[in-house]
Design a protein that fits this description.
single chain; 179 residues; alpha+beta; TolA/TonB C-terminal domain; five-stranded mixed sheet; 5 strands
């Protein structure tokens, strides 16, 4: 047995010497391929859920406002400027326009409901009204939807100015529903 194990040791040494004598490096195993990168496109934004079907217009407006904010993220929206935006003809003309175009919701009229709806919007650099949203609906019965409809009908305003340049300005407007 001793002779056999010596023979194996001798054979191993000879084979090692013959490989090194050939000056051929022992090839290394290739690296494993990189893991595949799977990229999925981002899911499209979904509109928020609202409790009442009557809030459909408001839901749509809020959803569009959020999309517009993302698109115009480079454009700063001011809340205070040197020259405030103005409805053509001034505030009196604006309230006359609202009074002439606002339709009192029938259900609110039937139940003799009164109150205020607070609307917030942006007067763009060109005077157009954009990003209309309801901040508070103190009436219900579709008064907020009607307020948004009136805002959408408004003519272009005189834009606000900061340091001599027309800028985007956020404006908050209370609309009173009174019988």
């Amino acid at each position: 047995m001793k002779i056999f194990s010596s023979f194996l040791l001798f054979a191993f040494i000879i084979s090692s010497v013959s490989l090194s004598a050939q000056n051929k490096p022992i090839p290394a195993a290739p690296p494993p391929p990189p893991a595949p990168v799977i990229s999925t496109p981002p899911a499209p934004p979904t509109p928020p859920h609202y409790a009442h079907e009557s809030d459909g217009i408001i839901a749509k407006e809020a959803y569009l406002a959020e999309l517009a904010k993302k698109e115009n993220k480079d454009e700063k929206i001011y809340t205070v400027v040197q020259t405030q935006p103005e409805f053509p003809g001034g505030q009196g003309a604006m309230y006359k326009f609202i009074g002439d175009n606002l339709v009192y919701p029938a259900s609110a009229k039937a139940e003799k409901v009164q109150g205020k709806v607070i609307i917030q919007f942006v007067v763009e650099k060109d005077g157009k009204i954009n990003l209309i949203k309801v901040v508070r609906d103190g009436v219900g019965h579709g008064a907020a939807n009607e307020s948004v409809n009136v805002m959408q009908k408004m003519p272009d305003w005189k834009p606000g100015y900061q340091e001599g340049k027309a800028v985007r300005v956020q404006y908050t407007l209370p609309i009173t529903f009174k019988l």
